[in-house]
Design goal:
The chain is α/β, with parallel strands linked by helices and 225 residues long. Helices cover 28% and strands 20% of the residues.
Length: 225
């Protein structure tokens, strides 16, 4: 999953927009954005955050500065533990060509001390978008860990896996009704990247995506199989 190969795979799938959302870190975002320069591909800076409740939330931003500010907040709320490569694998930071720069020594596969509500509120305050990740999964999801969507939670959409059935999810959990859904590969491998979500927008910006997720001003979102 090095930057040039991510960009190449996105082009093979004819994707217009991708988001880089590594777990509790954004240190490789800038490299992928640089790798996509000059191409018809928008790379959104983001992060997949694991909250205090062990819920995964996707946090998307417009600029690198925003996501790096958010990374500072996340790092401040992580336990002061070092990664153990023998258990969790190496955590590499690379450049735009995929060359090694350094190791990230922090333990990233952990929860931060901020709650679901606190993460979503911070992202909204900074004009980002917060999406609940893989809500149909039996672990590390909003429904698996909380059982419902809290009222007035600042979420732009729900993300589901390719196996999910939206109608069945809404039947089982009525608090999902009213939210838009997106579907992605949650890709940890190039083969898991996919083209299942269609956004009808005027241009590939976070604001336009927000309009689409809320079905406003003619913007739309649709999942295809």
């Amino acid at each position: 999953m090095i930057p040039p190969l991510i960009v190449q795979r996105a082009q093979e799938l004819a994707l217009d927009i991708i988001a880089i959302t590594d777990h509790n870190s954004a240190e490789n975002v800038a490299a992928v954005i640089e790798a996509a320069q000059g191409l018809d591909l928008t790379v959104l800076p983001g992060m997949e955050v694991q909250t205090r409740e062990e819920v995964h939330l996707l946090c998307l931003f417009e600029s690198i500065d925003q996501v790096m500010d958010w990374q500072d907040v996340v790092y401040q709320h992580m336990p002061p533990l070092k990664n153990r490569e023998e258990f969790f694998g190496a955590q590499f930071v690379v450049d735009a060509t995929g060359n090694y720069v350094r190791h990230n020594e922090r333990l990233l596969l952990t929860s931060i001390s901020l709650s679901v509500e606190e993460v979503a509120a911070w992202v909204e305050k900074e004009r980002g978008l917060c999406i609940a990740a893989h809500v149909d999964r039996q672990a590390f999801s909003l429904l698996a860990n909380l059982g419902f969507v809290p009222e007035k939670l600042c979420l732009a959409a729900m993300e589901i896996t390719p196996r999910a059935n939206v109608d069945e999810l809404q039947r089982q959990c009525p608090s999902l009704i009213g939210y838009s859904f997106v579907s992605s590969g949650d890709a940890h491998r190039l083969s898991e990247m996919c083209d299942r979500t269609i956004l009808t927008v005027e241009k590939p910006t976070l604001h336009e995506i927000d309009l689409a997720l809320h079905q406003r001003d003619g913007r739309r979102v649709k999942i295809v199989r």
